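Show me any protein, fold above all:
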Amino acid sequence: MLVLGGALAALAAFLAGASGFGLGLVATPLLLLSGFSLPFVVTANLLISLATRSSVMWRTQKWITWRRAAALVGGAIPGLWVGSVVLGSVDLHAVRVAAGAVVAVAALGLAWVDRHPPKPRLRGMNVVAGFLGGVLGTTASLTGIPPALLLARRRLAQQAFFADLAVYFVASSAVGLVILGAKGQFSGGAFRAFLWWLPAVLAANAAGMLVGVRLPEHTFRRTTLALAFAAGVATSATA
C-alpha cells in the first residue's frame, strides 16, 4: 500500500504541476479507493501540497497579486477550523461519499468555466472562495476547488493563475496542518508515508511543470478533470 500510495501521489503531483491545480482532485479519491483512511488522506495531501506548491510560489513570485492571494488565505483560515470540527463530528463513510461527489461535480464545474466567458465580478468572492476551500480542505482535502473555479472563471493569465493558487495552497496547507495537530487529527502514519513519498512527489511535480509549459494548457487541464471526474464517481460508488 505504501508503494501504491506513493505512485498515486506522484501521479497527482505531476498533474497538479502541469495544470496549476488538481492535487486534491486526483489524489483524494484515488487514495481513498486504495484503502487509506480519510484522516490519512487529508494529512498527506496537505503535506504534499505544502511541499510542492512552495517551489511553484518561488518560481512564479513576480506574477503574484498579493491582495487577491491575501483575501483567499484570509477566508481559508476560519474555513479550515470549521472543516476540522466537521471532520471530528460526522460519519467518515458519509464524508467519503460526499468527497467523491464533490470531486465529480467540481471537475464538471471547472470544465464548464473553461468554455464560458466570465461574468461581472461580485465583491468579496475571493474571501468566500477561500473560506469554502478551507472547509473542504480539512474535511476532504479538496482545498483548491473553490479558488480554482473562481480564478478560472476570471480568465487569469496562466502565470497569475499558478502564482496566486500557489500562495493560497502554501498558506492554507500550513494553517490546516497546525489546526489538525491542535485538534488531535494529524495522522502520524501519513507523515511517515509523506517522507517516503517526498522525493518522487517533488520530481513528478517538477516534471509536470516542465511538460505543462511546453504543451497546450487545455490538454492537461482536460486530462486532469477527466481523471478526477472518473475517480470521484468511483469513490462515491464504492464507499
